[in-house]
Predict the 3D structure of the following.
Amino acid sequence: MEIKDKDGKVILVVKDRDDKGSLTEGERVRSKGVDLEFANLHRADLKNANLEYGRLDSVDLSEADLEDAKLGMANAGSANFSRATLRNADLYGSFLNMANFEEANLEGANLQGANLIEANLRGANLTNANLSPDNMAVETALHSADLSGAKVDAANFDQAIYDELTIFPAGFNPQDHNMKVEPSS
């Protein structure tokens, strides 16, 4: 399987394992449990990709298209998703500590049970995303993020940081969740 950037240039060849453990080439990315640690997938076209249970630590997915991708239970600590499209992506239960989602589009994404401690969500679009329950506590940066319409019931925002440009769902009061406010820069 060739992974291409948005201009059609091949940037990585991924091989899948069949049920017998032998390597086969898939028609599309169906690499459940794939190890892409430290890979450079900048601007990759991964629409509808199945990267569930994948090892994506420190991978560069900046400006990648991950619309409708399955990343549930992935380990993506310190991954770079800046300016990536993750619209309607499933990140259920993923480990996303210290991941960079600056200006990423997570509209309608499922982040239930995700661990986002110290993640950077500055300027991210989280409209209609499902954040319940998940852990955005301890230094998660939400400066200028748009959470309008997001499902936040039971989400842990303890010590998450926001600014006056952060848009919260109707009725959400950041002080009730022990969040910290910082002036926008």
In short: The CA atoms of residues 137 and 163 lie 15 Å apart. The chain is about 0% helix and 10% strand.
